[in-house]
Amino acid sequence: MGIDRLDGRLLELLAEEPRIGVLEASRRLGVARGTAQSRLDRLKSGGVIRGFGPDVDPAALGYPVTAFATLEIRQGQGPGVRAHLAGVPEVLELHTTTGSGDMLCRLVARSNADLQRVIDRVVGIDGIVRASTAIVMENPVPLRIVPLVRQAAGEGLP
Amino acid sequence: MGIDRLDGRLLELLAEEPRIGVLEASRRLGVARGTAQSRLDRLKSGGVIRGFGPDVDPAALGYPVTAFATLEIRQGQGPGVRAHLAGVPEVLELHTTTGSGDMLCRLVARSNADLQRVIDRVVGIDGIVRASTAIVMENPVPLRIVPLVRQAAGEGLP
DNA sequence: GTTCTGCTGGTCATGTTGTCCAGTGAAAAC
DNA sequence: GTTTTCACTGGACAACATGACCAGCAGAAC
Lengths: 158, 158
Prior knowledge:
Helix content of chain A: 25-40%
CATH superfamily of the largest domain in chain A: Lrp/AsnC effector binding domain/regulation of amino acid metabolism (RAM) domain
GO cellular component, one term (chains A, B): cytosol
Keywords (chains A, B): DNA-binding, Transcription, Transcription regulation
CATH topology of the largest domain in chain A: Alpha-Beta Plaits
Mean pLDDT of chain A: 94
Number of helices of chain A: 6
Largest sheet of chain A: 4 strands, antiparallel
CATH class of the largest domain in chain A: Alpha Beta
GO molecular function (chains A, B): sequence-specific DNA binding
Protein name (chains A, B): AsnC family transcriptional regulator
Largest interface: A-B, 68 and 68 residues
Distance between the termini of chain A: 20 Å
Strand content of chain A: 25-35%
Oligomer: homodimer
Low-confidence stretches of chain A: none
Structural class of chain A: alpha+beta
Domain HTH asnC-type (chains A, B): 3-64
């Protein structure tokens, strides 16, 4: 579904100050509350907004180390590996990607030493042929959506 | 900061049904509202909960293609490249990683064809020596936090 | 010209929030 | 062993936000 400038501004507002709620958002956007309400409903039912889950910081939970692991999978072992990785709490995210049947996963750990334990657990299944890990040092651009929303909303400008 | 089982269950509840609010959460947890309130305040001020931003689906915005690009950076060009990538809306996330001064970024695009445009824009700066891209096909484990929360909360069990 | 569609500005009952408070129990400090 | 400290309970309160309405109005589409 496409979004217009009003949707875009609403999303920006909610992204920057999630606490404000529909009423305050409508005030800031200069529209009636019903309008903001129906726009928000449309964004939710249209799947643009999946939800308002809490944004949890793994570092504050005691897992300050993040890493990305690229996994090479043996032919046909994909499903087993997926299930295995889904069972590891430190695997925050898993993608299958183009290339030689590869997967990319995001890991966290309590320390660099602990990362070894996590990796051992990750690769502790037969289907994985090879794993290469890159430890994250800095995160100059944390996961963000506003610039994309702005671009999506501003296409078809006058 | 550490979290105990009550914090953990509170986080789980909020992660699974963000709409419920403090009052309903306290009811389900079987504790007084004040308790849930103060736990939530502590989690927020302790940085465990960064916020409650809307979870926006890039696909629903018209960007169904996700890719990860590994970038090799020329010595000393890091800051310039960071700034360049921060200016590209389709770059949702950027990490600097161990390895030969590399970076890893998450990209989205309108189509596989459009991805070419995005990549051209990403690598359209001098500091990048080489880029290799992996297109995401499936996402068996979407970004998740509950299993980790459960583990963090359950350490020191009786 | 008529029909749609979306926005406005308004109402209403209901539920939630933030912020208090005094009382209680249990663990920690002395 | 006694005192202090702390977190939780259960209750209260005013202020506010929410979801659900509605009639009226404007511009766009037909």
